[in-house]
C-alpha cells in the first residue's frame, strides 16, 4: 500500500530564511508524488509533481522538491520564505491501482516577519 | 480555464434539511472526486467517478449521503437529512486520469457547510 508521512506538523521560519518541509513515502512501485498547498479558507493548489523524470522538481512560487529513492523522501524546500508562504502543505502519493491520491496529515508553515 | 467550480461557497442550514452541493469539473477531465475536510479528520475522500460512473463510494459516511454525475460537466453531492456533524468544508476535484496518465487532481474552492 502507498502512504506518506509528513514528519513535522508545524514549521516556523523567519521571512527570508530557508524553508524545509519533510516528507517520507512508502510505495511498492515507482511513485507519483505531489505537494499541494492550502491557504486559509482556500482550496488545495498543486505546487509541484514528480513523475519519474527529473529527480529535482521545480514548482510554483520558488518551491522545489527532490525525489530521493534511497531515502524514500520527497522534501519540499524554498531558499527564502515570504510572508505569503504561510499555509498548510500536503505531501501526496498516487495509488495507481485505484487512481486515488493518498494525502499526508499536513504541515502548517508559519512565517514570522 | 475557469478551474473547478463549486456552488454554493457557503451553506448554513438547520438539522434535518436537505443540502445539495454542486460541482463543475474542468472541461475535458474525466475523473471527479468529492472530499470532506474537518479539523478532526483532515481530508477524506467520499466518492469518485470515472467517465460519469461511480467507481468507489466507500468513503461515503452513511446512506444520508448520495452523489450523482449526470453528465461530464456536472456533479452533485446531497445530504438528506443533514446533521450538525456534517458541518465541514466539501471539496470537489477533477483530473484527466485515466486518459492522460497523470494523477494530479485540481481542486475547487470548496463549500463550507454549517448545520445548526
Q: If you had to describe this structure to a student in words, what would you say it looks like?
A:
The complex is a heterodimer of chains A (113) and B (116). With 113 residues, chain A is an all-beta fold. Chain A contains no helices and twelve strands. In chain A, strand 7 and strand 8 form a beta hairpin. The relative contact order of chain A is 0.33. Chain B has 116 residues and is mainly β. Chain B has no helices and eleven strands. Chain B has strands at residues 5-7, 10-13, 19-24, 31-38, 42-50, 53-56, 65-71, 74-79, 88-95, 106-107, 111-115. In chain B, the strands form two sheets. In chain B, strands 2, 4, 5, 6, 9, 10 and 11 form a seven-stranded mixed β-sheet that branches. In chain B, a hairpin with a 2-residue loop joins strand 5 and strand 6 (53-56). Chain B starts with a strand and ends with a strand. In chain B, 36% of the residues are buried. The mean pLDDT of chain B is 93. Chain A binds chain B through residues 32, 34, 36, 41-46, 49, 51, 90, 94, 96, 98-101, 103, 105-106, and chain B through 4, 31, 42-43, 45, 48, 50, 55-56, 91, 93, 95, 97-98, 102-110, 112.
In round numbers, the mean pLDDT of chain B is 93
Low-confidence stretches of chain A: none
Please identify the structural class of chain A as seen in this structure: mainly beta
Determine Rg of chain B (CA atoms, Å). Answer: 13 Å
Percent of residues of chain B in helical segments?
under 10%
Assign a percent range to the helix content of chain A. under 10%
> Which whole number gives the mean pLDDT of chain A?
93
SSE order of chain B in H/E notation? EEEEEEEEEEE
Number of helices of chain B: 0
Largest sheet features of chain B: 7 strands, mixed
Please give the radius of gyration of chain A in angstroms.
13 Å
Judged by helices, strands and strand pairing, the structural class of chain B is mainly beta
Secondary structure tally: strands of chain B: 11
Tell the overall outline of chain A: globular
Count the beta strands of chain A: 12
